[in-house]
Amino acid sequence: MTDQPVPLFDTLVIIGPGLIGSSILRRGMEDRRIARRLVACDISPEVRARVTELGIADRVESDPATAARDADCVIICVPVGAIAMVAAQVMPVMKKGAILSEVGSVKTTVMEAMTPLLAQYPDIAFIPAHPMAGTEFSGPDAGFATLFEDRWCLLTPPGHTPTDAIRRVTELWEMMGARVRSMTVDHHDRVCAIVSHLPHLLAFTICGTADDLADETRSEVLDFAASGFRDFTRIAASDPTMWRDIFLNNREALLDMLDRFIADAQAMGDAIRTGDEDVIVSRIKRGRAIRRSLIENRQA
Ligand SMILES: NC(=O)C1=CN([C@@H]2O[C@H](COP(=O)(O)OP(=O)(O)OC[C@H]3O[C@@H](n4cnc5c(N)ncnc54)[C@H](O)[C@@H]3O)[C@@H](O)[C@H]2O)C=CC1
Ligand SMILES: O=C(O)C(=O)Cc1ccc(O)cc1
Q1: Is the entire prediction scored with pTM above 0.80?
Q2: What are phi and psi of 226, to 5 degrees?
Q3: What do you get for the CA distance between the two ends of the chain, in Å?
Q4: ipTM, 2 decimals?
Q5: Angle, vertex CA 105, rays to CA 80 and CA 18, nearest 5
Q6: Does ligand 2 have an atom closer than 6 angstroms to the CB of 135?
Q7: Ligand 1 and 78: CB distance under 6 A
C-alpha cells in the first residue's frame, strides 16, 4: 500500500461557505492534499442545508466557536463588516499555533478592528488574504473549484507573523491554483480601490443613470444596450450587502480614486468639447495598450 501524502491542514474550517468559501471547499474536496477534514459553518440555516446537500464539507456547523475548536486553519469568508465579529467568536477557542485567515475585499479597517483581538490572542497567526477572483453571484451554489486558477491572491500579514504560517497560507492558495503576493494593508486597499471598487461604483452608477434616462424619455434605452453596457450590467448585479461593506470600509482610498477619475473624465470631456483629437486618441490608445498587456500576461 502506498503512503498518502500528509495534507497541508488536518482540519480546515470555512466560515461563510458562499461564493468564495464554497469554492475553497470544492477545491479542497477535489484535492484531499489540502485538508484531511473540511468543516463549513454558516449563520444561515438555508446555506447550511445547501452545503450538506452539495456534499462539499465533511461537517457542517451553525456555531463558529464549535466549528473552530479543533481547527488548524479557519478562513472567514463573510462580508467585510462581519469579519472581526466572527473572529471574536472563534479566537477564544482556537488552538495555539493555529492560523486564522479571511478573504475580505478591504483590509485596513478589518486590521484596525482585529488589533485588540490579536493582542489578546498572540498565539494565533492572523493572515488576511484576498483572492482577486469572483463573479457577480453569491451563495454556495455560485462557487466552483476552478475559481482561483491563474488569479492573484493578495496576502497582508502583519509584521510579526511567523514565516511558517505565511508559507502554509501561500501553499494553500497555490493549491487553489492562484499566484500569491504579499503587501501592506494600505497598498492593498489603494490597489483594490482602483482595479475593483471604483469599477463597481461606476457600474452601479451608469446602470442607474441609464435607467433614469429610460424613465425620463419613456423609451427602451436599456433594450438596445450593446455589449459594453452589458458588461457594466453584469458587474452591477453584484450583492448589495457585500458592496455596501466594501464602499464604506474603503472610503478614503475609494473617494481618492473617484476624485482622480472625475478629473480624468472631465479632461476627456474637455477634449471632446474642444475637438482635441490628439488627447482623445492618446487616451483611447492607452486603454487599448492596457488591455493588450493583460491578454499577453493571461489576465484577461
Ligand atoms: N464575491 C466576490 O467576487 C468576492 C468576494 N470577496 C470577499 O469574500 C467575502 C465573501 O464574499 P462572497 O463569498 O461573495 O459572499 P456570499 O454572500 O456568497 O457568502 C457569504 C456567506 O457568509 C455567511 N455569513 C454572513 N454573516 C455571517 C456570520 N456572522 N457568521 C457566519 N456566516 C455568515 C452568509 O450566510 C453567506 O453564506 C466578502 O468579504 C467579500 O468582500 C473576495 C473576493 C471576491
Ligand atoms: O465579478 C467581478 O468582475 C469581480 O470583480 C469579482 C470580485 C469582487 C470583489 C473582489 O474583491 C474581487 C473580485
Answers
A1: yes
A2: -85, -175
A3: 44
A4: 0.99
A5: 65
A6: yes
A7: yes
Q: Are strands 125-131 and 152-155 parallel, antiparallel or unpaired?
A: antiparallel
Q: Which of 238, 239, 244, 254 to mutate to test the pocket of ligand 2 (most atoms within 8 A of CB)?
A: 238
Q: Is the dihedral of CA 205, 209, 215, 221 positive or negative?
A: negative
Q: Does 28 contact ligand 1 (Cβ within 6 A)? A: no
259: left (phi over 0), alpha (psi -120 to 50) or beta: alpha
C-alpha cell belonging to residue 72: 488548524
The rounded distance, in Å, linking the Cα atoms of 140 and 4 is 29
Residue 113: CB partners within 8 Å, gap ≥ 6?
83, 84
Instruction: Express each pLDDT in 228-267 by its tens digit.
Output: 888 899 999 999 999 999 999 999 999 999 999 999 999 9
The residue nearest atom 1 of ligand 2, judged by CA position, is 135
Phi, psi of 75 (to 5 degrees): -115, 120
